[in-house]
Prior knowledge:
Layout: E1 6-9, H1 19-33, E2 38-43, H2 53-66, E3 72-76, H3 81-93, E4 97-100, H4 104-110, E5 112-113, E6 120-121, H5 131-138, E7 144-147, E8 158-163, E9 167-172, H6 173-176, E10 180-183, H7 191-201, E11 206-210, H8 217-227, E12 233-237, E13 240-241, H9 257-261, H10 268-277, H11 289-292, H12 298-305, E14 310-311
Parallel strand pairs: 1-2, 2-3, 11-12, 13-14
Antiparallel strand pairs: 4-7, 5-6, 7-10, 8-9
Helix pairs in contact: 7-8
Bound molecules: glutamic acid.
Amino acid sequence: xxxxxxxxxxxxxxxxxxxxxxxxxxxxxxxxxxxxxxxxxxxxxxxxxxxxxxxxxxxxxxxxxxxxxxxxxxxxxxxxxxxxxxxxxxxxxxxxxxxxxxxxxxxxxxxxxxxxxxxxxxxxxxxxxxxxxxxxxxxxxxxxxxxxxxxxxxxxxxxxxxxxxxxxxxxxxxxxxxxxxxxxxxxxxxxxxxxxxxxxxxxxxxxxxxxxxxxxxxxxxxxxxxxxxxxxxxxxxxxxxxxxxxxxxxxxxxxxxxxxxxxxxxxxxxxxxxxxxxxxxxxxxxxxxxxxxxxxxxxxxxxxxxxxxxxxxxxxxxxxx
Length: 321
Ligand code: GLU
């Protein structure tokens, strides 16, 4: 790559980081640093209901405490509404967007549920509204904005990519999600649009994140192509889950950095346990993120990922000496 790897942290300030977030951040940091690359920090705070400045401050402090540094930022998405609006207008200018008046209840009633993950495929209800219908409905309700995806028979709507960890993927947008939101009806810019615009404008070449976002990647590549951006490489790393397979959430307080830092020790034990989780350290080894740079390979992560999520069972940080 011409200018080297540019990775990024893109946390949402919806709560305290837990060990799963730390694992993904560590992998993003190692992916960039092991290649001699740079990192950007961007706080994804577009949704006012899922963000607060206190959480942003803690995220930044937690990354510092972990020894995961960055070279640029923090950028805050709420300061960047103009660039997202421009991108939506550019897509609109090509006739690729349309206003959608469907309510949540209508969407659930009319849409075909997606077989694997319970999300819905938009059936195109508002695709063909006439200008007068749009005008009429706009009096009653603020529309969301959707991006058209090509029909299933059109090759442009099938996105293939090669993930550094998960290997080859191929997705037909019309069959996986249908036309998707770029702006919500409450005016909030959709994640799928903002993340693409930001990664491109910030020069990001390597996107490392939890594999719960694997299913968003095809949509993001589609938006990149429409806007003429180049495609970064993707690495979707395993999630850290509770012993019953459940995703970690705000309920797992003992695995968040508030509890872990409350023990007034350094980050080395946590980093060591996460590194051991992907075979980069021995069990029980304590070490800093810096010390891992030399050991890191995507091969190790790829091998570990084949065994599925990482169980947090083995992590006992709180209430231990
Ligand atoms: N802000 C997202 C999150 O915290 C991550 C987005 C991304 O990495 O693309 O889950």
